[in-house]
Amino acid sequence: MLAKLDYDQLTNCMRCGFCLPACPTFRETGLEPESPRGRIALMKAVVDGVMDPDQAFEDQMNHCLGCRACEPACPADVKYGQLIEQTRDAIEDHAEHSAPVKGLRKLFFKGVFPHRGSLKWMGRSLALYQKSGLRRVARGTGLMKLFPEHLREMESILPDATGKGVVERIGTVYPAKGEKIARVALFRGCIMDVMFADTNVNTVKLLSEAGFEVVIPNDQVCCGALHAHSGEMDQARGLARTNLKVFKEAGVEHIVSNAGGCGALLVEYDHLLHEDPEHAELAVWFAESVIDVSRLLVERGRLPEFADADVHSGQSVKITYQDSCHLRNVMKSSDAPRRLMKQVANVSFVEMKEADRCCGSAGIYNVTQPEMAGQILEHKMAHANETEARYLLTSNPGCLLQMKLGVEKHGVSDRMEVKHVVDFLYERIAGRTDDK
Ligand code: SF4
Ligand code: SF4
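That is the input. Now the predicted structure with iron/sulfur cluster docked in place:
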């Protein structure tokens, strides 16, 4: 940790505590070590040699959602996100995982996420499981009961997977409708293109309707966010270097992200590679080129007409929005998605209480820390139910799944639908003819 942590950032914390009310884990527990200030103090104590990085320390670091709500609240501009990533990286260097955990980490971080071929294979296998009746057999025979409850719940709300991603569906270049405003590139993501390929396709088509030519470089790889959040920084850097080269060659003005979790790492490639002289300059260009789809549409797009929030009856429909923490706290985009939603005819937008608070998804947090994630989700659902919204919109696949889980658990799926903002908008373009 001494070698990996930025000591200036540790000492920048003046222990004012302004970040405490913003922190979901502190709000849930009321405990100082579960707060940003407490975690920074623990990190500093280890770096100063005052305490050992024992299991309790590691647990405290793992309880952090990485939502970064503490950063905008901090008057000293402490880069907490960087500190927690550096800490996890240092912990991972000496981690003693059990053989199955080691195997799973190796399989997903090295074998699946970085390789398009493996992701396609995963998508096809999942689709086969979902559609061939295997899922029914697994549930009927009680096989699923071998898995912990939270994994069974997650399995039940997974969308239909596919091995056919956005490039296989619409090619690598999609023309602008009408006069071209700019040539942009889509960052398609790894899981996103397997579990939410429709959203990727809709993103491209929505951008096209708004006047953008969209290229989808086929050699792009996973952003590395899951690696970075799990202490695999070298692997995250390797993926970033590949993306720099691929997107530079695409010759675009913007690199568009439709997933807050990915976008937040992409806009920080400059920091990720700042000690790599060969790539640092290109990383700055890359980070400055990344933009969230909502912001690009609002700031530069020629927005199409969006008709009828309720595509069937044309009546007024209540909608609400759950912020993606990374989109809000790192990419600083919270206004643009809201402005876009309000463009749809007959929409009645209801702001959800604490919409800026994490939903508990946080990458794979809801898998690794199910108890805390479930507790946070319960509070979120209480606020979501209060809105009485017909649609709950989000801008990140992880948030979407977590909210869908909450809606199912609360038995309100017949009156509240969870959707990505892009899908909601695309489906409501007036006079749209190019259906998938
Ligand atoms: S708000 Fe910033 S300076 Fe104050 S305690 Fe939190 S991290 Fe430290
Ligand atoms: S990243 Fe989120 S959970 Fe972690 S300390 Fe900051 S506010 Fe709390």
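The mean pLDDT is 92.
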